[in-house]
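Technical note accompanying the year-one report. For the benefit of new consortium partners, we illustrate the data format agreed upon in the data management plan: each record pairs a sequence with a structure-token string. No post-processing was applied to the example shown here.
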Amino acid sequence: MDTKKSRTRFAWMCVLPATILFFVFMLYPTIEVFRMSLYKWSGYTANKTFVGLNNFKILMSDMKFIHAFQNTILAIVIVTIVTLAISIFFAAVLSREKIVGQNFFRIIFYIPNILSIVVIAGIFSAIYNPTQGLLNSILNLFRGNETPILWLGDKHLVNYAIIGALIWQAIGYYMVMYMAGMANIPDSFYEAADLDGAGKFKQFFAITLPLVWNNIRTTLAFFIISTINLSFLLVQTMTSGGPNGASEVVLSYMFNQAYTNGVRGYGMAIGVIIFIFSFLLSAIISVITKRDILEY
């Protein structure tokens, strides 16, 4: 009995520090965000005015917020679809095909994920440079020395330019995750499929994709959270929301409202909307993509 109590006490001692940190730095700040979203507060004084849901009512008619929210949804949709398709394609190729230098390609693809987001912003700012950038230089080989394309200065292109950087940064990380799942698939499955005359394309959709489906479901939530977070960092370092607010995303708009314009309560209301949106979208996708677990 004493041994059991000692083990229980030891387990609590191990868990307690992490639990305290979770409550102090995660749960409490989250509750405070919800509470402060009900106040009108500059963040620099002790004077707070309770306004109830008024901040949320203003949000619903704030066209700048709606535009930033639309940009965020656009980024989530495109980054998720394109990154998922490319990363799982390369994961399948590097896992199943006999390619010289497989480990080299794995490292090359993963490098963007270990770079600082500021470094990535610098790389793509140079690539998108209208006069000396790599992208315009390549395009000029086919279109001649026409007026340079302002990738970060055109309101119709800037969001797609940022999305391109997000995709480049994410592909290697998710590719490695999918490769880990594919590595556990027995070779006998593919050998049996070969004997039945199934081609590579059929094998991918009949064997590989179903057996790594749980990995894909998990990464879909990662896509949502990481896109929301990283799009803010890229916007802040590459465009600062420009030109004329065209590249503003919901987190950058929240930051500007809370810390630049000094309406902290309004900014917290935006934070609450982001939290609820992320949670609901992740839950909906989890339900939609749920299927029976295939065992092997």
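Partners are asked to follow this layout when depositing records. The two ends are 41 Å apart (CA to CA).
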